[in-house]
Amino acid sequence: MSTISTYPHNKTFKLENGKKLRKIELAYQTYGKLNAKKDNVIWACHALTANSDVLDWWKGLFGNNDLFNPEEHFIICANVLGSHYGSTNPLSENPVTGLPYYLSFPEFTIRDLVSAHRLLAEHLGIKDIKVLIGGSLGGQQALEWAITDGSAIENLILVATNAVHSPWGIAFNESQRLAISTDRSFYAQKPDGGLKGLKTARSIALLSYRSYDAYTDTQLESVNDKTGSFRASSYQNYQGEKLCKRFNAYSYWYLSKAMDSHNVGRGRKSVTEALSGVKPNTLVIGVENDVLFPISEQEFLAKHIPDAAFHSIKSAYGHDGFLIETDILTNVIGNFLKESINKKIIKLHKTA
User: Fold this and answer.
1) N or C end of the chain: smaller count of CB under 10 Å?
2) What CATH number should be reported for the domain holding residue 120?
3) Which of 258, 290, 313 is the last residue of a domain?
4) Are residues 13 and 136 in the same domain?
5) How far apart are CA 8 and CA 190, in angstroms?
6) CB-side exposure of 329: number of CA atoms within 13 Å?
7) Containing domain of residue 46, as a range?
8) Active site residue: 112, 183, 260, 290, which one?
9) Which tens digits make up the pLDDT trace of 198-249?
10) Helix (H/G/I), strand (E/B), else coil: 57
């Protein structure tokens, strides 16, 4: 079991765009114990609306009887800056005004999320990470971290993610923000502002997370005489309402913008040059029918990251397959890590 801890960084946190937050707090959870060699750290980066409880949202891959288990590993997952599950976010109090930030919260990027992670790692005394893993927005963080400071990471696992967020992905996110902005309450400076718009945004997002086959498998009507009250309609409404009960429109707005900001080539020579500098042993995994992060994006990563391994998986769930197909992921990642250990042993023998 684990409880949420909070790291208060009481110094000014400078964002990539030059703006500053006087202080930030980062919520995180750890599972298991750091071993004597301090070489059993598994750091998981979460996706858009997830939280620091990786044993909850990535069940089957993380858990007591799973590949990444607290009995063997020291597992860390931090709630990203901007998300309201304990970290500083738009609903947090602005120390200058004494009121919540809301839309005065400064925009941030994937690199800012990584900078916050690195501060937490330093606070925890973590110098080496055995496995850094993330999917979707979490994968964007993991990749950026590996480019920024890859020497501390032994193995990098990127799932259903990319080097640059695509015009297609940005268009999906902008459509969701347009939905939120049509809700006038979004500008009312209240914690529940924009929830009707957020419900619509979630409905739009689901279309990019799943696939035609997934909807056919789960929402197809069993009778032919219906003219309304369709299962697919109810499902969209239910999922929208479900998110509204656990998230806020302001965090969603800012985090979607952070996803749009992802481009490993920004401020560097090029995207391919940035990828060529990735040092950890890398495994890239893609979902064959992922609409939001097409598998061509993972193939691009594997092609340009030195000696990266690549594996594609089949899933009727599309992009969400990275959260659901944990049996397949366990097999693929487990084999990769075994090969990584063997390579390490061979290398030690050669240098002995």
Assistant:
1) C
2) 3.40.50.1820
3) 258
4) yes
5) 25
6) 27
7) 5-165+263-351
8) 290
9) 999 999 999 999 999 999 999 999 999 999 999 999 999 999 999 999 999 9
10) helix
Direct distance between the N- and C-terminal alpha carbons of the chain, in angstroms, rounded to an integer: 41
Do residue 86 and residue 216 come from a single domain? Answer: no
Q: What are 49-107's pLDDT values in tens digits?
A: 999 999 999 999 999 999 999 999 999 999 999 999 999 999 999 999 999 999 999 99
Q: Are residues 236 and 279 part of one domain?
A: no
- The reply to whether 307 sits in an annotated binding site is no
- What Rg do the C-alpha atoms of the chain give, in angstroms? 20
Question: Do residues 208 and 336 both lie within one domain?
Answer: no
Would the annotation count 213 as a binding residue? Answer: no
Select which of 165, 262, 311, 319 is catalytic.
Answer: 319
74 contacts 30 by C-beta, under 8 angstroms: yes
pTM of the complete model beyond 0.90: yes
Closest CA to 308 of 342, 274, 285, 332: 285
Last residue of a domain, one of 258, 276, 291: 258
Catalytic residue status for 136: yes
Examine the residue annotation and report whether 290 is marked as an active-site residue of this protein. yes
Closest CA to 172 of 136, 207, 215: 207
- Catalytic annotation present for 233: no
Q: Which CATH number does the domain housing residue 192 bear?
A: 1.10.1740.110
Q: Looking at the DSSP assignment, which residues form a beta bridge with residue 76?
A: 30, 43
Q: Which of 52, 87, 115, 136 is catalytic?
A: 136
